[in-house]
Design a protein that fits this description.
By secondary structure, the protein is of the alpha+beta class. It contains 10 helices and 10 strands. The chain binds flavin-adenine dinucleotide.
Length: about 400
């Protein structure tokens, strides 16, 4: 793997870095520390700048009008985009556009016409419904939502938990068990419209994330046409899993971006804050924290780039993506924790972005496959055994 950035990557990352520093951070100075959106008019203005940079709809495949960005470059861009207060969960407040639910690219033409294309035009929103009250770390075993065929329809009963954005969505993907005898081969993905009778958002679940929340869904005799199966019957789990593995790369890169921004703040503060007659930067206890931060940042970055590089070369990258996700999310959490310690009291105040990063990074060790699951994935490969 060549770890030197090529000319195009250097140019793109510098462009995005300038955009974050010149356009996003100044706006955040006047926003509530827990803000989840930009002031009216600003999002449109910034979206036009991003279009001008040729970076709009980053994750959209070229045949649908996206820039067709390589995964390593996408990781580097994600690292830059996260470097502001809301950047972990709302990189640049969404002004770079969205590819929507990536599983929809596997849909048939009618499904793309009805769901994917309106989503890309910003006319429809979707949700991803895998996790259930019975568990999300091992969804292949935990899914209890049942879909039973009835003529040309399927009737779905069950519930889902922690589903982001379902209360604002027009449709979503529901993973349900269609053949209980077949384990993970018995799970099917259904596209469900949120106005179908039997679909209900039972409650919202608030978490450590600023503003955003998950939902609990109730599916009660929800009748879905057979044509709404996404992909093949019984192949829902692999549809979910393939995208999740790939998603771990920008997910990790965003954490590293936040860590980079926290480290910059820690260094600047250590160089100017005096205690006991000298600046903090002269104290070995502080120097070691700064060095440990740098080790966590560079280790996480190398690992996500390695995973991305393998994916780009068509090589298996599940192990590397799991390792990057585990090391990157945990390391970024430590970096922000140390940066807060170096800042003392101001570090935990809402005057600085550190407290939001600290809270939101904690979720990253659980979402998109918790740390334990990443270890299970790696152990399976190393030992050629099941997870027990
Ligand atoms: C803010 C937020 C947003 C989310 N958004 C979505 C969404 O949009 N769609 C969606 O489908 N899901 C979503 N999730 C759910 C998330 O994916 C799950 O929380 C996650 O997969 C873990 O599932 P669980 O919480 O049920 O934990 P469990 O499966 O109950 O596991 C509990 C703990 O035990 C650990 N564990 C499990 N098995 C083992 C083992 N064999 N050995 C050791 N430890 C083990 C797990 O790692 C975990 O830490 C979201 C969660 C959060 C917090």
């Amino acid at each position: 793997m060549d770890i030197a950035l090529n000319e195009e990557q250097r140019m793109i990352t510098e462009t995005v870095r300038r955009f974050v520093r010149n356009e996003i951070r100044p706006l955040e100075r006047d926003l509530d520390p827990d803000a989840v959106e930009l002031p009216p008019g600003e999002a449109d203005r910034l979206r036009e700048i991003v279009r001008g940079m040729g970076l709009y709809n980053l994750d959209v495949p070229e045949e649908y009008g996206g820039p067709g960005m390589a995964l390593t470059t996408r990781g580097l861009v994600a690292e830059e985009m996260a470097q502001h207060r809301a950047g972990l969960y709302l990189p640049c407040y969404g002004v770079f556009g969205s590819a929507g639910l990536v599983q929809l690219y596997s849909g048939n033409e009618a499904q793309k016409e009805r769901y994917l294309l309106p989503m890309l035009r910003g006319e429809k929103k979707g949700f991803f419904g895998l996790t259930e009250p019975s568990g999300g770390a091992d969804p292949a075993r935990a899914i209890q939502t049942r879909a039973i065929r009835d003529g040309d329809d399927w009737v779905i009963n069950g519930s889902k938990l922690f589903i982001s954005g379902a209360d604002r969505a027009d449709f979503g993907l529901i993973f349900a068990r269609t053949d209980p005898e077949k384990g993970r081969q018995g799970i099917t993905c259904f596209i469900v419209d949120t106005d179908m009778p039997g679909f209900e958002v039972r409650r919202v679940v608030h978490t450590l994330r600023s503003g955003n929340y998950g939902t609990e869904l109730s599916l009660d005799d929800l009748r879905v046409p057979h044509g709404n199966i996404l992909g093949e019957e019984g192949k829902g789990f692999s549809l979910a899993n393939t995208a999740l593995t790939r998603q771990r790369i920008p997910y990790t890169a965003g954490c590293i971006g936040v860590a980079v921004a926290a480290q910059e703040m820690a260094i600047a503060y250590a160089q100017q804050r005096e205690t006991f007659g000298a600046v903090l930067a002269t104290r070995q206890a502080i120097q070691w924290m700064i060095v440990d931060n740098e080790i966590d940042i560079r280790t996480g970055r190398l690992l996500y780039l390695q995973a991305a590089s393998k994916a780009e070369h068509g090589e298996p990258f599940r192990f590397e993506a799991a390792m990057a996700k585990l090391v990157g999310t945990e390391g970024a959490g430590r970096v922000v924790d140390r940066a807060i310690q170096i800042h003392g009291g101001i570090g935990v105040s809402k005057d600085l972005p550190l407290e939001r990063w600290y809270r939101e990074l904690r979720i990253r060790r659980i979402g998109e496959g918790p740390s334990e699951v990443q270890r299970i994935i790696m152990a399976r490969d190393l030992l050629s055994v099941g997870s027990g």
